[in-house]
Amino acid sequence: MATGTQGPAAREAYWDIVKGLLIILVVAGHAVQYCCNGNFWGHPVFKGIYLFHMPLFVLVSGYFAHGSIRRHGWLYPLRNVRHLLLPAATAGLVFIATHNAWPEYFNDYTDWYPLLLGIWFLYAIFEYGLFLCILESLRSMLWRVLWIAAPMLLALWWEDLPFRNQFTFLYPFFLLGAWVAARRPNLAHPAIGLAALAVYAAVFCCFDDTWYVYRKPWVALDAPAEIYNIYAIRTLGALAGCFLFLFAAKRLERWLNRSLLRRLGSATMAVYILQAYFWDFARVERIMQVNTAAAMAIAAALLALCYGLYRLMAKSRILALLNFGEWKRRG
Question: Quick one: which of 88, 107, 142, 222 has the most CB atoms within 10 Å?
Fold first, then answer.
């Protein structure tokens, strides 16, 4: 596929391919985390993926949110109740039910965590989309700047804000995705690739577990300078990783299996939820302790299994209503 200016259909196909590649990385990263003897912080595969994969998922969500808000306006947050909140809450309730029925088979969590099921980003993206919807309605540049800054500043100082860490770290990537959708820069430009590669390589070499997306570096409030440095470095590394990935996807698009990746890209939420169930079995971490090559084989098999289950569930009208897939009346 040619780079540069492209039609809407081509752009959407490209972003579905990006989503397909990302869900592969998610499963691969989890395979390293759960199968490589617990020594994953310094693992190069884990570091390479976790430095940017969630920020890029959020960026892609912001990309699609921009067009959806332009088309649907204030109906966009209401549509997200069905597309984001309903599947997340339903999966969480099912998760709680299975934990209560067979507690000996699952990892032990706090009472509230199963409702989130580790898919906090669905709730967070709903929140980001609501803020973006308000932002798009503002006409004054001053108010727009204040509205962009206020949520991040609020999250930085309000300790009880839901998804606080994810909001301060990831919300800017959601806005960046909306900007990419509006401006449509040439993501295949060599300058983007070279600059992103240089920054990403530098940050990768000094990756620290405090930069992990789930970590909360502000705990040491007696050292605010260090906190801001962590945010700045990990944000810069994530930004470089995002654009390096988008650059590589553009350059390699014609050689990739686009049909397969687009199918995976359209099923990312269902695949993520299903693989989250798999990794939560308490015995997985005890049984599947293997080397990296075997972990990648497990990841590939799990990805195929989850996508196959998704296709089966998509045939159910009830599960389709939960956004696992599209259901069409036969006849």
Answer: 88
- Residue 45: CB atoms within 10 A of its CB come to 19
What's the chain's Rg over C-alpha atoms? 20
Find the largest Cα–Cα distance for the chain.
67
Q: Could you give the C-alpha distances from 132 to 139, 144, 179, 279, in angstroms and in order?
A: 13, 10, 11, 33
Q: What is the DSSP letter of 40?
A: -
Looking at per-residue confidence, does 7 or 107 come out higher? 107
State the Cα angle at 34 between 29 and 38, rounded to 5°. Answer: 110
> What is the SS3 string spanning 187-232?
CCCHHHHHHHHHHHHHHHHCCCHHHCCCCCHHHCCCCHHHHHHHHH
Is residue 310 within 8 A of residue 272, CB to CB? The reply is no
Which amino acid belongs to residue 173? F
Most confident range, picked from 78-92, 101-115, 210-224, 312-326: 78-92
Residues 6+ apart with CB under 8 A from 148: 135, 175
Residue 282 is classified by DSSP as: T
Alpha carbon of residue 138 to chain centroid: 27
